[in-house]
Amino acid sequence: MCIFCEIIKGNIPSKKVYEDDKVLAILDISQVTYGHTLVMPKKHMANIIEADDDSAAACLLTAKKLAAQIKKNTGCAGINILTNCGEAAGQSVEHLHFHIIPRYDENDAIVLRFDPSKEQDLNEVLKTVKGE
């Protein structure tokens, strides 16, 4: 059972922010910051990598529109829009969804860090990424 599919069917209540024939956006039940919203396709797919182009585009365009609306209406200083692919990346529900996370200051309840890794040979990395 996919909890997001159950929400989409109306079997589990939610706070709908937006809905059309392809996409549903709801308030995240665990508000990381005030206004934290989830955007998901109505069609089940595990993540962005497995998504069809139409569903991915519909979600991203909706996230873009809602992010602007949320920023305007909450007065937040910035917004993170993110999606996780797989458990190792923090995905807890196997149904594609984008988080819209309003940011009010650097002391918010969310921490995103990009620490430097060991030095990489970018030519080797490029070949690997390109599959050469």
Folded structure, characterized:
The chain has 132 residues and is of the alpha+beta class. 29% of the residues lie in helices and 19% in strands. It contains three helices and five strands; from the N terminus they run αβββαββα. Strand 1 and strand 2 form a beta hairpin. It starts with a helix and ends with a helix.
- By DSSP, the count of extended strands is 5
Uncertain spans: none
Number of helices: 3
Strand percent estimate: 15-25%
Distance between the terminal alpha carbons, to the nearest Å? 39 Å
The H-and-E topology, N to C, reads as HEEEHEEH
Q: What topology, given as strand order, has the largest sheet?
A: 1-2-3-5-4
Q: Report the biggest beta sheet as strand number plus sense, adding barrel if it closes.
A: 5 strands, antiparallel
Indicate the radius of gyration in whole angstroms: 17 Å
Structural class assignment: alpha+beta
Shape: globular
Percent range for helical residues? Answer: 25-40%
Task: Fill in the keyword field for this structure.
single chain, 132 residues, alpha+beta, 3 helices, 29% helix, 19% strand
Provide the fold topology.
Elements: H1 3-9, E1 16-19, E2 23-27, E3 37-41, H2 53-74, E4 78-82, E5 98-103, H3 122-130
Antiparallel strand pairs: 1-2, 2-3, 3-5, 4-5
Put the structure in a nutshell:
This protein has 132 residues and is α+β, with helices and mostly antiparallel strands.
